[in-house]
Amino acid sequence: MPLLDRSQYRVRPTEAGQAFHLRATAVLEQASMLNAFSDQLSRGEESDLRVIVGDLTPTADTLRRLKRFFHAWPRTRLHLHFEALSGPWERLLAEEADLIVHHVDKADTRFEWVNLAPVALVPIAAPGYLPFPVTRELTAEQMKGCVQVIIRDSAKQEGRDYFVIKEHRAGRWRISTPRKS
């Protein structure tokens, strides 16, 4: 089957020639990628890095750090995912992630960790929402009658207790509307 049409002044590819060119281009690109991959392996570089960012992680700072890293290693592909609560740990332990940026129990010997930055958790409520004077020593007992914002744990298996007031977890939810003055 001819790949070139020579019937005119300028030689052009036939339909079969165009199909062959497309496939040959794809094969050459794959060969180039395979060559780059083997170079990475021979230098001990990662070709892919699976990173999970946790819910309490300062996103902007983390993305800046990742951008700097991947700028220095442009042939490493980033697979970036976001998880909540115990989801990052579960994915790391299941070998579905190479790195998590998340809080960690430093006593858990399954994890190697580096402190990146402290994260302060600050409880907030709208002015006038709490039916008692606000102090720095709020107790769980005081908060039992208040609605909590609860996020879903992205882990597939039941994880740790995150100190959610138990009565709310059992389904006794109260939805409040703004108080009229």
How would you sum up this structure, described in words?
By secondary structure, this protein is of the alpha/beta class. Residues 168-181 have low confidence and may be disordered. The radius of gyration is 28 Å and the shape is elongated. The strands form two sheets. Strands 4-3-5 form a three-stranded parallel beta sheet, with helices on both faces. It is built from five helices and five strands; from the N terminus they run E-E-H-E-H-E-H-E-H-H.
Please write out the topology.
Layout: E1 4-5, E2 12-13, H1 15-42, E3 48-53, H2 59-72, E4 77-82, H3 87-93, E5 99-101, H4 140-143, H5 166-169
Parallel strand pairs: 3-4, 3-5
Antiparallel strand pairs: 1-2
Write out key terms for the chains shown.
two-stranded antiparallel sheet, three-stranded parallel β-sheet, disordered C terminus, 5 helices, 5 strands, alpha/beta, 181 residues, single chain
Q: Which H/E pattern describes the elements?
A: EEHEHEHEHH
Average predicted local confidence, pLDDT: 82
End-to-end separation? 86 Å
Number of strands: 5
From the alpha carbons, calculate the radius of gyration and give it in angstroms.
28 Å
Low-confidence stretches: 168-181
Helix count? 5
* Shape estimate: elongated
Portion of residues in beta strands equals 5-15%
Structural class: alpha/beta
